Amino acid sequence: AFSMTTAYRWHITDPVIFEKSLRMEIEHKGVIFNEDGTIKSGFEERPDDFSSVALWYQTEPHKPYPALPPAKDRLYVDWSKIVEVDQALDTVTATSGPLSRQEGGQWTGGGQVFWQPAEEGQSFEVAVDAAEGGEYELVLLMTRSFDYGNYEVSLDGKKIGGPLDLYTASVTTEEFHLRTGHVDAGKHMLRFENRGKNHESTGYFFGLDGYLLNPLN
């Protein structure tokens, strides 16, 4: 079950005095539902999205604030339509190195496509399907880790976005947003080509949790 709630809860009667910063915490446990709508738990960790309001003291006059991004750019990504690549391994290929489904709770759907090339210059491809012609925002949900490489992304042979450095000191997931340019309806080939690695990385590995194609029309 999904819902959207806007709530303001005030439990203070006077301003809270602070000089440098003010820390606020949001409870992120609550009711969890099963797929059939029945209650699974009344108090459990939930994958909710939150937005917050910043509070600060200020003297006037102040410098003009920068303009807000367009409303569409401030919306959360709807991951309910994610393409779980790890559940469709027949759509992916790699030039060399083991290619498998790696299971783990940090990934949507409980897993990711894990590719382990032993050297730089190798590539990974996955077939993607555009429902109709137009320009899309390609949202990649990828893994970054201490043994991951640098990758260049292309669609049907055309580079999109800049190189992706997938190195971090510890395992995490991250969204990457790329514009496709105009594409026709139908199948397209998304390619990730290794371009070496961060000097602190111990490998060239690659992990893709899933992707979205959001129309920009």
Identify low-pLDDT runs.
none
Helix and strand sequence:
EEEEEEEEEEEEEE
**Superfamily at the CATH H level of the domain at 79-215?**
Galactose-binding domain-like
CATH architecture of the domain at 79-215: Sandwich
Assembly annotation:
single chain
Separation of the first and last Cα atoms: 29 Å
Largest sheet: 6 strands, antiparallel
> Which structural class best describes the helix and strand composition?
mainly beta
What is the CATH topology classification name of the domain at 79-215? Answer: Jelly Rolls
The CATH class of the domain at 79-215 is Mainly Beta
Share of helical residues: under 10%
Residue share in β-strands: 35-45%
- Record field, number of beta strands: 14
Radius of gyration: 21 Å
Shape: globular
Question: Mean of residue pLDDT?
Answer: 87
How many H/I helical runs?
0
Describe the structure.
With 217 residues, this protein is an all-beta fold. It has a domain at 79-215: Sandwich (Jelly Rolls). 0% of the residues lie in helices and 40% in strands. It has strands at 29-33, 39-45, 83-84, 92-94, 99-103, 111-115, 123-130, 134-144, 150-155, 158-159, 164-165, 172-183, 186-194, 206-215. Strands 3, 5, 6, 8, 12 and 14 form a 6-stranded antiparallel beta sheet that branches. Strands 4, 7, 9, 10, 11 and 13 form a 6-stranded antiparallel beta sheet that branches. It is globular and about 65 Å long. The mean pLDDT is 87.
